[in-house]
Amino acid sequence: MHIPRAAFGPERRTLCERKQSVSQACDILDINLADEGQKRILWADRDMPVLARIRERFAEERPLEGVRIGACMHVTTETANLMRTLVASGAEVTLCASNPLSTQDDTAASLVRDFGVDVFAIEGEDMDTYERHIAEVVATNPQIIMDDGADLDTALHTKFPEKLEGVIGGTEETTTGVVRLMAMAKDGALRYPVFNINDANTKHCFDNHYGTGQSTLDGIVRATNRLLCGRTMVVSGYGYCGSGLALRAKGMGMDVIVCEVDPLKALEAHMEGYRVMKAEDAARFADVWVTVTGDCNVIDEPAFKNMKDGAIICNSGHFDSEINMKWLGGGAEAFGGGVHAARRAHHHRARRGAPCEPRLRRGTSGLGYGHELRQPGARRRVPLQARLRT
Questions:
Q1: Cα angle for residues 67, 196, 193 (degrees, 5° grid)
Q2: Distance (Å, rounded) from C-alpha 228 to C-alpha 255?
Q3: pTM (2 decimals)?
């Protein structure tokens, strides 16, 4: 459902009016999914009491009255409650997806219909659509940028430099985005200040260490329907995310091997009771391999050649650069087709990779094109009403 921005005037209609007809610009899958999306947004809100109190206060004070905010983030129920808070504060909010695979279409529909947010996001959108959606956000002349991965910041600086003058500042909430922005700042290319949300202590503790560990395992289980206990997991990277994932995997009864290039972190992993190996050595034992480094080609040719038959590989970092899918060649194409087929056949299920054997004599299964698994993989299976009853 694509409603062009030019079709509407500048006025913003009331919540009641929005329930009767979509009055703002958007590009979403289906507005009729809004009822389910609203239930899920309000369900998530029950577990976000601090944000709820801020929203209640901001609704009275209206500190962002008339401020235009452009956001490029995961379009999930948690993000939806953040967007609700910004709208309550008086801001005019436009949201696009920071990852095409993580968008929850019912959440997007409810944000448009019920909460007055202009949303440009469709689950599984192609790269052309993804870039067009970013351009739609830029077209609103945002004054504040909220980014997750720095794609919106990068687009503003490279494709739309004429829009930079009106930007007051921004926020960035993931490691990959912070690295990109720090490189821009070092080169003198960053044109406005950006708050590094990623390095907040609460982000490291609750999101990275505890959240990533649980959601990654959840995504693996939902995507593969495999029993984890008794299997061997290799974790590449032992930072906040990797250490949390290793802890959760160990708690599920898995044998955990850590691959880490930082000697101090590698020693820490050893002292925590994990085996520490080079990637090509760990590959011989891996039943499941997860990368959480933010680096490039962490799983590469030497490791692929040593993998056992049926090994599962996936990434929990922001971009799809951690697994060398290009090396897999034609098999990566076959694998990608399998993912698409699974998604269309099971719309609400996690993407699962078809086994691919391009340059390997053994089969290897990849999940989600090598993109971040934990957001698209960790999807609900039980209808909300059933969960409420239980």
A1: 55
A2: 10
A3: 0.74
